[in-house]
């Protein structure tokens, strides 16, 4: 190797251990100057740990980090910043009530006699946004701007600090298809100007679209680094998962029956602001079909489900499940007819400190199957039931039914919830983001289960933010925008571009009479 | 080697071990405090403190004074159970102290003013504590008033209410309530022959076995019943409990009511033995309820564990009485208990230390053994 190294950052033979687990096992990642380098891996593969080591949040036990060929020590994020490493986190770190400009200069303000000198900063920000095609309004408040613009603000923050190495942590999760295209263009512009980009993702199509090289991790181990132009999605997913994966969901055409869920003019209040989060929404879900509520996060989907499940009372409107008016029914009355896979499995889906067997009966513990007339739990029946579900749904855990649920992996926690909800008697299944944060293998499994539910004649309402899921799994798409259903689409006839227009509010069906 | 490791991995064993570590360290730091106050007598003093009733030379005397420790262990255990039960549902029942006071007031007033028999007095004490707990529960469930705040306020309200109430049944010349033995013997708890076991200590009554039975009952309710399942689910994760259709509000009220009844019963367990009389001029809430919090944590938040921790705390408390008051302040036993409780805060640290040692051992073995 000659003195002039082509690498901006090299992480060589990094090993990081946590009690009982090796999060990074001898991992090498070399980021060339000016390239877009994707870091691909399932959840728990060690991507975040590796980035935390680079960002100084963790110290590796073994291995070295080199910047421009010279070994460096990164003990904390300040060291990382000093070396020109910047990061756009998955959850933005912006002050909501500050303007875009204030957020960009926060922490590196230029002052004169203790007074802020914003004019210079403004010039620099405008120049940067011009140069890289990052359109922002420097005087808008963060809380008033779109997620896409917030992300551009985060990128400008890094550029304003003259960072050379930019880390994007799953940046497309919150964006519409149009915004994703814009981001891809921005990333290309940045690399053309000599910035080096690390792009953490598990979306293969984005890697194919934008990255030059990709490094794959699996279960803490380094699998390999390949040039994107020499590979394809199938090979990458094989590297990531360790086996062949069905990327497209196989399903027969739907055969809808009678209406199971009927929602009429439902309005639900918001917990965060004074306006209603769900406004006058009406729709039906029939037996044997999967209806998907698509939309960008925060357009009332959460509250819609709260209203359906009974966590939040309706302001007005009507819910009918299987012919019975459930508008004012308690959570338990509704759950007799409907199963729920909640959005937040840790908050609503599981009692994490309970053993797995107790979580398996969380919706049914009071039934005569599991409780004696005197109110004692039937421990043996609960144990047997848990064992049965674990086997049927392939829920893996360290110690079987007595495993504390907290100690299980996210995928298996989700499988436990799915097992419980699908096995329970129900006519309607409401699944909210059922594959969030899960790896490709688990996603494949869960989608096939949802389709099996449909084929078994259940009504399935799927709430999803993932375009791919919406297009692949659903039989009918309802798009939600700002608390209203703005369009109904047939996944076979629409495109993700058209869907994106609905999701961003640029297009809407005219209200049918 | 392997069996030993599995043994150490059991959470129950770990809880006991960590509590023991807390106790030993607490005694050690207490010893240092004694050394600072008076180096010469420190060793002797700490031994005296730990020996408590064993300081007496003869077996009958030892039994008699063990009896005295047990008499005060029963109410402490009840307060600890009250705190423990509520804690399992995610509620911090600092109001146990006030519920205890309410129980004492109800039991003594019923015994002295109405001449009621002991079992009615017990029931009324339970009701009084329960009502107080119910108020905290209602405020928490329906108006989201933190149970710690309402509990502390109710502690004072109940103290002064009880003082006013019991002033009607106090002796002329002193601030103490009438002696039960002379005024209404039927209100004294029966001994069922237990006094014979403890050298005719007539304060040793059925309160002691009853409190242990109640501890077992609470343990059964928490681990084996539907109600306990709901309660603990609510305590661990109230959002998931609500999502599962559990009636969160009803459970909060019910839990605090039961907790209050337990503390109220505890007070009756002490005052209906005639071991102590209530002073209507006291202006601080009796420490029994607060010591119950300590016993709960030292007992590893386990109803059965609190039986032992309550005894231990009372043991040290009584042992403090045998110290040479000319040299050492009588608060030294309180200090040692405080230290032990403070160290209980490190329980998690001790546990993770033990686990880290175990997994380090496992790691070595796995390397040696190859594929596991």
In percent, how much strand structure appears in the residues of chain B? under 5%
CATH fold annotation of the domain at 65-310 in chain B: ABC transporter involved in vitamin B12 uptake, BtuC
**Helices and strands of chain A: which structural class?**
alpha/beta
Q: Estimate the helix proportion of chain A, in percent.
A: 25-40%
Oligomer: heterodimer
Number of domains of chain A: 3
Under CATH at level 1, the class of the domain at 65-310 in chain B stands as: Mainly Alpha
Residue stretches of chain B low in confidence (pLDDT < 50, at least 5 long) are 365-372
Query: Could you tell me how far the N terminus lies from the C terminus of chain A, measured between alpha carbons in angstroms?
Result: 73 Å
| Outline type of chain B | globular
Radius of gyration of chain A: 25 Å
Summarize the main sheet of chain A: 6 strands, mixed
Greatest interface: A-B, 28 and 20 residues
On the 0 to 100 scale, the average pLDDT of chain B is 87
Large-scale geometry of chain A:
globular
CATH top level of the largest domain in chain A is: Alpha Beta
- CATH fold-level assignment of the largest domain in chain A: Rossmann fold
Instruction: List how many beta strands of chain B DSSP finds.
Output: 0
């Amino acid at each position: 190797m000659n003195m002039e190294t082509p690498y901006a950052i090299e992480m060589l033979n990094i090993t990081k251990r946590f009690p009982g687990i090796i999060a990074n096992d001898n991992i090498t990642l070399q980021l060339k100057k000016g390239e877009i380098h994707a870091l691909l891996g399932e959840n728990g593969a060690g991507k975040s740990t590796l980035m935390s080591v680079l960002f100084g949040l963790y110290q590796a036990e073994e291995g070295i980090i080199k910047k421009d060929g010279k070994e460096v020590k990164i003990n904390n994020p300040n060291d990382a910043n000093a070396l020109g490493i910047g990061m756009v986190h998955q959850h933005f770190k912006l002050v909501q009530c500050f303007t875009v400009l204030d957020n960009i200069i926060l922490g590196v303000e230029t002052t004169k006699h203790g007074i802020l000198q914003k004019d210079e900063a403004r010039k620099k920000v405008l120049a940067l946004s011009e140069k890289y095609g990052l359109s922002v309004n420097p005087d808008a408040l963060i809380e008033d701007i779109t997620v896409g613009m917030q992300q551009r603000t985060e990128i400008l923050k890094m550029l304003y600090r003259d960072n050379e190495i930019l880390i994007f942590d799953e940046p497309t999760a919150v964006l519409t298809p149009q915004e994703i295209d814009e981001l891809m263009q921005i990333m290309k512009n940045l690399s053309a100007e000599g910035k080096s980009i690390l792009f953490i993702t598990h979306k293969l199509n984005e890697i194919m679209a934008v990255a030059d090289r990709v490094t794959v991790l699996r279960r803490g181990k380094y699998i390999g680094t390949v040039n994107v132009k020499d590979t394809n999605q199938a090979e990458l997913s094989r590297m990531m998962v360790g086996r062949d994966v069905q990327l497209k969901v196989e399903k027969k055409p739907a055969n809808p029956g009678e209406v199971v869920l009927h929602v009429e003019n439902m309005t639900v209040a918001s917990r965060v602001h004074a306006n209603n989060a769900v406004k006058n929404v009406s729709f039906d879900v029939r037996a044997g079909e999967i209806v998907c509520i698509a939309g960008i996060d925060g357009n009332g989907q959460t509250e819609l489900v709260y209203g359906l499940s009974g966590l939040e009372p309706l302001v007005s409107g009507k819910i009918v499940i299987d012919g019975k008016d459930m508008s004012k029914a308690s959570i338990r009355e509704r759950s007799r007819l409907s199963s729920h896979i909640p959005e937040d499995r840790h908050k609503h889906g599981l009692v994490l400190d309970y053993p797995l067997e107790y979580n398996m009966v969380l919706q049914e513990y009071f039934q005569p199957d599991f409780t004696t007339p005197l109110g004692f739990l039937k421990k043996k029946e609960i144990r047997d039931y848990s064992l049965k579900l674990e086997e049927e749904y392939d829920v893996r855990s360290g110690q079987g039914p007595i495993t504390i649920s907290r100690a299980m992996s996210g995928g298996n926690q989700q499988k436990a919830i799915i097992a419980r909800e699908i096995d329970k008697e129900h006519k309607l299944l409401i699944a909210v983001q059922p594959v969030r944060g899960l790896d490709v293998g688990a996603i494949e499994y869960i989608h096939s289960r949802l389709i099996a539910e449909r084929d078994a004649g259940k009504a399935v309402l799927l709430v999803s933010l993932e375009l791919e899921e919406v297009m692949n799994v659903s039989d009918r798409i309802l798009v939600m925008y700002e608390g209203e259903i703005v369009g109904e689409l047939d996944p076979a006839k629409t495109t993700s571009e058209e869907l994106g227009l609905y999701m961003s509010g640029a297009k809407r069906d005219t209200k049918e009479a | 080697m392997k069996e030993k490791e599995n043994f150490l991995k059991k959470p129950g064993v770990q809880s006991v071990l960590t509590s023991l570590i807390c106790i030993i360290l607490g005694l050690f730091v207490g010893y240092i405090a004694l050394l600072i106050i008076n180096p010469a007598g420190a060793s002797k003093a700490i031994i005296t403190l730990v020996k408590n009733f064993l300081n007496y030379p003869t077996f009958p005397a030892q039994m008699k004074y063990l009896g005295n420790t047990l008499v005060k262990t029963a109410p402490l255990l009840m307060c600890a159970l009250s705190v423990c039960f509520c804690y399992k549902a995610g509620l911090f029942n600092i109001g146990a102290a006030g519920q205890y006071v309410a129980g004492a007031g109800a039991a003594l007033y019923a015994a002295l003013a109405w001449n009621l028999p002991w079992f009615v007095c017990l029931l009324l004490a339970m009701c009084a504590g329960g009502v107080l707990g119910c108020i905290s529960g209602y405020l928490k469930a329906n108006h989201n008033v933190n149970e710690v705040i309402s509990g502390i306020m109710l502690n004072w309200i109940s103290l002064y209410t009880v003082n006013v109430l019991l002033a009607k049944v106090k002796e002329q010349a002193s601030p103490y309530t009438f002696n039960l033995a002379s005024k209404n013997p039927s209100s004294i708890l029966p001994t069922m022959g237990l006094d014979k076991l403890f050298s005719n200590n007539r304060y040793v009554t059925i309160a002691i076995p009853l409190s242990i039975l109640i501890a077992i009952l609470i343990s059964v309710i928490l681990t084996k019943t539907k109600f306990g399942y709901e309660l603990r689910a609510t305590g661990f994760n109230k959002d998931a409990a609500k999502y599962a259709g559990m009636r969160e509000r009803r459970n909060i009220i019910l839990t605090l009511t039961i907790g209050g009844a337990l503390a109220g019963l505890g007070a009756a367990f002490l005052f209906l033995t005639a071991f102590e009389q209530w002073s209507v001029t006291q202006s601080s809430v009796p420490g029994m309820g607060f010591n119950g919090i300590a016993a709960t944590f030292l007992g590893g938040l386990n109803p059965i564990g609190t039986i032992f921790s309550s005894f231990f705390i009372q043991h040290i408390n009584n042992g403090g009485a045998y110290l040479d008051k000319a040299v050492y302040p009588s608060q030294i036993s309180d200090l040692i208990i405080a230290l032990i409780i403070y160290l209980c805060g490190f329980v998690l640290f001790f546990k993770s230390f033990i686990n880290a040692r175990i997994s380090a051992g496992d790691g070595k073995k796995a390397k040696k053994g190859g594929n596991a």
